[in-house]
Amino acid sequence: MSGPHQSAGEAGEPIVEFEDVSFAYPNAEGPALEGVSLRVRRGQRLGILGPNGGGKSTLLKLALGLLSPSSGRVRVLGRDPGEARALGLVGYVPQKTTAELGFPLTVTQVATMAAAWRVPAWRPVPGAVRERVREMLDLVGVADLAQRAIGGLSGGQLQRVMIARALLAAPRGEGAGGGAMRAPALLALDEPMVGIDAVGQARFAELLQRVHRELGVTILIVSHDLRAIAAGCDEVACLARRLHYHASPTGLTPRVLAEVFSHDVAGIAGLAGMHIHAHGPGEACPDTGPVGLSVSAPRGGARGGAGGGAGGGS
Amino acid sequence: MINPLDMLRDPFMQSALVTGLALVALCASVSVLVVLKRLAFVGQGVSHSAFGGIGLAAVLSVGLAGAGVPTGWLTQGGVVEFVIVLAFCVGAALLMAAIADRTTLHVDTGIGLLLVASMALGGVLVEASRKIAEATGVPVGVRSWESVLFGSLASNGWNDAIIAWGVALAVLLTLWVIRRPLVFWAFDEQASPAFGVPSRRMSAILMVVLAVVVVTSMKLAGVVPATAMLVLPGAIALKLGSRMGTVTAWAVVSGVVGLLAGLMCSMAFDVQPGPCIVLILTALFGVAAAVRRG
């Protein structure tokens, strides 16, 4: 898939920029985010990791323009995030429970919504849009479910449809006119692994890899699941009100994780079965060098769990 | 046994039938969304807010008549009273949307609050209008709450039928024009704003449409039949269909069947058509639920 299907723009161009952003909810005791600066470039996959209440979803809502920062500046494709959203430049995958699954809609109808909601009522949905819908359903592996009722899908199938819908977000002026459609510049996913079993999570990670490979779309994924983030992201941002780390997942140390998760490393989802242990800054790990977070295969033995990791040393 | 052709020969039933079909068009158009979005209580809140509007119109009528202003244009059950009630209900509906959207108060609490406050306000204002009329010697007709609650489809004339179809066509046109963003918003209220769907505008339009449908249906048939027409065709249709197109078609069919059977029962047993329509629709729902289970 290439040409008009690819997300347009120059490689390296900043897609999301946070500059010293703070945000506090009304009547909250403290800020949800404080002094966060980060940049996501075109084609990058940034995983946002952090504990519950650490500000991950808040950061995503700021990037989508659903919230406005208390201070600092957020830009998406050089624009105000609300403007980028209104222009249809962002595809969004919510946690699976947000849709009304009792609606009598088929998979195709749900996917078409995102691409065709701007099409004037007096015009039929253009053929290019219908073709694009078929392509995206095929890409995410649910083409055979196209006529199935949306309420009759499993959690994993539904999540795939939601990704297809997000990839069909139609920039204003595209789709409605019947011309070729491109993928949105940014795909934002909010806790997409919640409620999906381990097999489904692995398939989901593969799917995101495929979407990234074929469409070149920039991905912003929020999760509290370390394995999901480490397996499929170029960079990881660890967030617990402040930004504690923003670099490659292979450089992530147990010390950072302990800091982000307030030393409750055992509670980090996705750590079970991963090789992880503490060592000092700059100290080479005798086993894998930096913590091998990109290695997702479970390791056996006493050192396999997270519990003996950050606190005890290796 | 009533011959359906007798109904068509009776001039009262002719206008009742034409008005009733407008009622079906109005209610069936939003009934599926009302059921899917669990807006039945919103419909109740809006319909009962009408009592406040009726009270306001009554006080205005008596007050202006007392001041020597001709108030023939403000007669009870007339177009101006309808417009005042409509404005009152649209305001109440928008207030409900604002409560749901911008406050931490649960939407049901907000609706309950507006519902009882409007009914109480209506009671106080109607009582006040009676007292002002007695004090000033202005003749004033008394509007019975029964007529508001149950109305009478059979008492509608051709003017009512024309107004009903005018409103119905305006509602149908509005819904047709915004159907794509409206269905997207209704299906996924939380995610659709991230795609650029103007969610607050969709919510406000739906509430205004709902208020217009409720107030018009109330005027034509009374609160109880209007509520039944607003909820039951959608509930029946969702038992029988599994695609948006077929569900909408079933909503219209069940509304028409409820109307025709209700009017025939009304003629056969010489009772008001409103309660007959409500009972027929309730029975149809029972049948649809049984068919679904079977």
Brief characterization of the structure:
Chain A has helices spanning 56-64, 81-86, 107-116, 127-139, 155-167, 198-215, 226-232, 254-260, and strands at 14-23, 33-41, 45-49, 71-76, 90-93, 186-190, 218-223, 235-240, 242-247.
| Number of E-state strands of chain A | 9
| Basic shape of chain B | globular
Mean pLDDT of chain B, to the nearest integer, reads 84
Strand content of chain A is 15-25%
Order of strands in the sheet with most strands of chain A: 5-6-7-3-8-9
Largest sheet of chain B: none
Inertia-based shape of chain A: globular
Content of β-strand of chain B: under 5%
Record field, number of beta strands of chain B: 0
Q: Would you list the SSEs of chain B in sequence order as H and E?
A: HHHHHHHHHHHH
Instruction: Quickly count the helices of chain B.
Output: 12
Sheet of most strands of chain A: 6 strands, mixed
Instruction: Determine the structural class of chain B based on helices, strands and strand pairing.
Output: mainly alpha
- Rg of chain A, rounded, reads 20 Å
Low-confidence regions of chain A: 1-5, 272-314
Counting DSSP H or I runs of 4 or more residues, the number of helices of chain A is 8
Strand and helix order of chain A: EEEHEHEHHHEHEHEEH
Task: Explain this structure.
- The complex is a heterodimer of chains A (314) and B (294).
- In chain A, strand 6, helix 6 (198-215) and strand 7 (218-223) form a beta-alpha-beta unit.
- Chain A is globular.
- In chain A, the strands form two sheets. Chain A has a six-stranded mixed sheet, with helices on both faces. In chain A, strands 2-1-4 form a three-stranded antiparallel sheet, covered by helices on one side.
- Chain A is of the alpha/beta class and 314 residues long.
- Chain A is built from eight helices and nine strands.
- In chain A, 49% of the residues are buried.
- Chain B is globular, with a radius of gyration of 20 Å.
- Chain B has helices at 4-9, 11-36, 40-66, 79-102, 107-136, 145-150, 158-177, 179-187, 199-221, 223-240, 244-269, 273-293.
- Chain B starts with a helix and ends with a helix.
- Chain B has 294 residues and is an all-alpha fold.
- The longest helix of chain B has 30 residues, at 107-136.
- Chain B has twelve helices and no strands.
